[in-house]
């Protein structure tokens, strides 16, 4: 594989704050270090791939507001083609309210705004870009019928599909059978397969279910437990790198962008997973979403120094 990556997905502005611990229901806790970051899984994955040297465009939507102009500008400054980002006059730019606790774990509330107004016909209008790309990447932060339209166009044109099913929701077998690379985290894998993913064996069992539904390659990211791949009757697991975690936001996005960019360079599936594990390990040592994504030279250095 080599060539252009087309991302179809969400664009948010993240309003993030740090807390020592998450509040219990009804409780007020003090927070600190409030920041406004570019976010949204679609935008983050596009930037993650671009920072790894990929040629990337995104199909998505922002509102006709300051957040929308900021989000688009932040993508363009990373070299991501935004010519197919629609400005929706009827909905505000998507936002995410993020809290990160003292152990680096986050909780996220997403208000979709313009992301939620993306329709299959908007995707259809961008058919040429999906058809001419070497890889389509989707997530589930825009309506499922729009994601289905993108995957259908890709299938009709022989464009391989990477689906990050986040946040997870039930998906038709038809759609999953058009997915070449399914990349859930352990929670999404459990929600979609009905198998609680707590270790490598249960991840393998979940992957089997996805294969039964027609998905060719399954990569499950498992946070501190590393990542595994199941493809062509082979399973391989990697441990996570031992780093000081300050914020797990966008760790999955970083993984997917680096994985996709590596595939586009002609690396094997297993090599691409290895690169992606280094990229996401760097991401969790930094705060923010797009702002925490590593550039290629940082990943290459880690691959030499951490081995
Ligand atoms: O994956 C992290 C992202 O999820 C954040 O940037 C937030 O916007 C939500 O979409």
Query: Proportion of β residues?
Result: 15-25%
Helix percentage range: 25-40%
Major sheet summary line: 9 strands, mixed
Shape: globular
- What series of H and E elements makes up the topology? EEEHEHEEEHHEHEHEHHEEEHHH
Topology:
Blueprint (H helix, E strand, L loop, with lengths): L4 E4 L3 E8 L11 E9 L1 H11 L4 E8 L2 H11 L4 E8 L5 E7 L5 E6 L8 H5 L2 H5 L3 E4 L5 H14 L3 E3 L9 H4 L4 E2 L3 H8 L6 H13 L4 E5 L5 E5 L2 E5 L12 H14 L4 H15 L12 H10 L2
Parallel strand pairs: 1-4, 1-8, 2-6, 4-5, 8-9, 9-10, 10-11
Antiparallel strand pairs: 2-3, 6-7, 11-12, 12-13
This protein binds alpha-D-ribofuranose (RIB).
Structural features:
307 residues; alpha/beta; 9-stranded mixed sheet; 13 strands; 24% strand; globular
How would you describe the overall organization of this protein?
- The chain has a nine-stranded mixed beta sheet, with helices on both faces. It has a four-stranded mixed beta sheet with strand order 3-2-6-7.
- β12 and β13 (234-238) form a beta hairpin.
- The protein is α/β, with parallel strands linked by helices and 307 residues long.
- It is globular.
- The protein has helices spanning 41-51, 66-76, 120-124, 127-131, 144-157, 173-176, 186-193, 200-212, 251-264, 269-283, 296-305, and strands spanning 5-8, 12-19, 31-39, 56-63, 81-88, 94-100, 106-111, 135-138, 161-163, 181-182, 217-221, 227-231, 234-238.
- It binds alpha-D-ribofuranose (RIB).
- Alpha-D-ribofuranose (RIB) is lined by residues 10, 12, 14, 39-41, 44, 96, 108, 110, 141, 249-250, 252-253, 289.
């Amino acid at each position: 594989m080599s060539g252009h990556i087309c991302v179809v997905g969400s664009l948010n502005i993240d309003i993030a704050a740090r807390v020592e611990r998450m509040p219990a229901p009804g409780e007020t806790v003090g927070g600190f270090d409030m920041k406004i970051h570019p976010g949204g899984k679609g935008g983050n994955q596009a930037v993650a791939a671009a920072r790894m040297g990929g040629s990337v465009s995104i199909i998505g939507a922002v509102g006709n507001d300051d957040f929308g102009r900021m989000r688009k500008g932040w993508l363009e400054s990373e070299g991501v083609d935004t010519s197919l980002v629609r400005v929706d006059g009827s909905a505000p730019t998507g936002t995410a309210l993020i809290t990160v606790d003292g152990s680096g774990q986050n909780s996220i509330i997403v208000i979709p705004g313009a992301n939620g107004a993306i329709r299959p016909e908007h995707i259809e209008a961008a058919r040429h870009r999906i058809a001419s790309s070497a890889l389509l990447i989707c997530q589930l932060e825009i309506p499922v019928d729009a994601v289905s339209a993108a995957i259908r166009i890709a299938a009709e044109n022989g464009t391989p599909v990477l689906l990050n099913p986040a946040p997870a929701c039930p998906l038709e077998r038809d759609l999953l059978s058009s997915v070449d690379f399914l990349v859930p985290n352990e929670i999404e894998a459990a929600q979609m397969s009905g198998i609680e993913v707590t270790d490598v064996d249960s991840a393998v069992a979940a992957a089997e279910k996805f294969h039964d539904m027609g998905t060719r390659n399954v990569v499950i990211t498992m946070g501190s437990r590393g990542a595994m791949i199941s493809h062509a009757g082979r399973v391989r697991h990697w441990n996570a790198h031992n780093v000081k975690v300050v914020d797990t936001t966008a760790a999955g996005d970083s993984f997917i962008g680096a994985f996709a960019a590596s595939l586009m360079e002609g690396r094997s599936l297993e090599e691409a997973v290895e690169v992606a594990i280094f990229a996401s390990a760097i991401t969790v040592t930094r705060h923010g979403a797009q702002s925490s994504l590593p550039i290629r030279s940082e990943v290459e250095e880690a691959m030499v120094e951490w081995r």
